[in-house]
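Private note to self, pasted from the team thread so I don't lose it. C-alpha cells:
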C-alpha cells in the first residue's frame, strides 16, 4: 500500500510539472513565474464558479494542483462577484504579481490554453457557461 501512495505522489508531481512546463513555454518564461500565474489563474477562476462547478473542475486537476485550487477556498462566498474583464485581470495580476492588466491578459490566454489541453472539452465548456460574458470572452480568445 505504501508503494501505491508514493507512486501517486510521484505521478501528481510529474503531472504538475507537465502543466508548469506547458505554461512556461506558452509564456516564454521560467517555471517560477509559470507557477505564480497558474496558481493565481486557478484561484481567480475558482472564485468565480459555483461550488459544484469548482468541484467538477478540481476533479480533473492533478492532486497537487487540486490542493492549490482549494487553498483558501470559502464555499460560503461562491461565486464571487467578479463581473467584468478588468476586475478579473486585475485580481489575477495582483495574485500572480504581474505588472499590468496587459500582462495578465497574456497570462490568462496562456493558462487557458494549458487548461484546455489537460481537461475534457465538456468540462471546459461547463466552466465557460458559469462565467459572465465579459470574462468568458477573455478565456475564449485563447
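Design output:
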Amino acid at each position: 500500500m505504501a508503494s501505491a501512495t508514493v507512486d501517486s505522489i510521484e505521478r501528481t508531481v510529474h503531472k504538475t510539472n507537465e502543466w508548469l512546463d506547458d505554461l512556461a513555454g506558452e509564456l516564454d518564461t521560467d517555471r517560477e513565474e509559470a507557477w505564480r500565474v497558474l496558481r493565481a489563474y486557478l484561484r481567480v477562476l475558482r472564485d468565480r464558479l459555483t461550488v459544484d462547478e469548482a468541484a467538477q473542475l478540481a476533479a480533473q486537476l492533478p492532486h497537487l494542483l487540486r490542493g492549490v485550487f482549494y487553498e483558501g477556498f470559502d464555499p460560503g462566498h461562491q461565486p464571487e462577484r467578479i463581473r467584468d474583464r478588468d476586475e478579473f485581470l486585475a485580481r489575477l495580476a495582483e495574485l500572480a504579481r504581474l505588472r499590468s492588466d496587459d500582462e495578465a491578459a497574456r497570462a490568462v490566454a496562456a493558462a487557458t490554453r494549458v487548461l484546455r489541453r489537460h481537461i475534457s472539452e465538456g468540462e471546459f465548456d461547463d466552466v465557460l457557461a458559469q462565467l459572465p460574458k465579459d470574462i468568458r470572452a477573455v478565456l475564449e480568445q485563447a
